[in-house]
# Entry
Amino acid sequence: MKSDKPIVYTCFCTDVIHDGHLNLINEAKKYGDVIVGVLCDSEMVKYNKFPLKSTKERVELVKSIPDIKEVVIQNKVMYDDIVKELRPDYIIHGDNWAEDSMKAIRKNILKVLDEYGGELIEVPYTFNPKVQKIDRQMREQLAMPELRRKRLRQLLDMVPVVKTIEVHSGLTGLIAEKTVIADDEHVDQFEAMWISSLCDSTEKGKPDIELVDMTSRFRTINDIMEVTTKPIIFDGDTGGIAEHFVYTVRSLERMGVSAVIIEDKIGLKKNSLFGTEVEQTQDDIEHFCEKIAAGKNAQLSDDFMIIARIESLILEQGMEDALKRAFAFRDAGADGIMIHSRRKEPDEILEFCDKFREKDSETPIVVVPSSFNTITEDELKEHGVNIVIYANQLLRAAFPAMQNAAKSILKHHRAHEIDEELLSIKDIITLIDEL
Ligand code: SPV
Ligand code: MG
# Structure
């Protein structure tokens, strides 16, 4: 029977119910019948709350709280749709609106309620040590190798396109981890990180020719892992000889890296964006397949992914060659295909994706739109792309800014002129939180 009591709505995006949630429900029931929304997986990710429990489990968890009339799934972080559906008299929420994303959500709630005279109830956020400990544990758990490693595979099922940004240090890792945009319509952030050989080498002042050895590259991974939780895709260059690659796979897997991408080149590797301007040799199909198979055979978990990167378009070997390689590498065990191009237009990439998808709707496709950078993630998705890697933008942003600061100091014999373009002293000394 339909109750004529007012409806009080709240949305939970959590894997664990703690005192804070129970307090909120206790408060909510004073106003009427309580309906709780469980935020769906893909929106939890946008909100930097990667779910450790499935939606079904989270629904069951919320249902186990007494005094809740109904549990529904909220499909968007923003409240427009759910409010249209339920028209609650009240939305109840903790008063923890400090972050930008939370401010945008509050604004959205007030806007949708205002349309029909609903009311927002804000209750003091429960900040007791027990709640804080649970919050911290949830976050920290995501950094553990076992959980981090499988997150890329999980993301491939959860989000339309895995947006991946280049990182080359702890600091850039923090940018990937924490950068959020929040406006009237959405909240969003990167889902994964790419450890580029170009940027890792450049950061060390070395050319991108597989000169920076694995021990050094693993240290970069470690620096990043220490301060982040998001999954890592590692640029493995050519992977080296198969006899060495198997050890790399084991090490990466043990560290909690989610995927390695290896390119089908042999001999002295140069950066792909040189194309045919420098001498580069493509490996033959059979030999590269043996390397992929050896890697797959070496890994211990099912989570880790070996993604094969095809250089046929870069080396002007044609579409047929690229496709032939893609199917051969997949059949050798590759968990995904990366197709690369250095053309300004995305045409050849899209043609490849369409032709590959005609015969294979499953194997993930990865692209790196550095040259063909006008195409959007949505357009790439329409052609079957699953992972988009922004492979070098953070380092390219930093270098001119640093050079500019150095030149200004040299020119003016003091630092005053550049100061207003810099992070303030107050901000730099408080940028990194202590544990
Ligand atoms: C990298 O980022 O190191 C890559 C992508 O391998 S590219 O530079 O485009 O070859
Ligand atoms: Mg590289």
Remarks:
- The first strand starts at residue 7 and ends at 12.
- Residues 196-198, 235, 271-273, 368, 370, 391-392 surround sulfopyruvate (ligand 1) (CB under 6 Å).
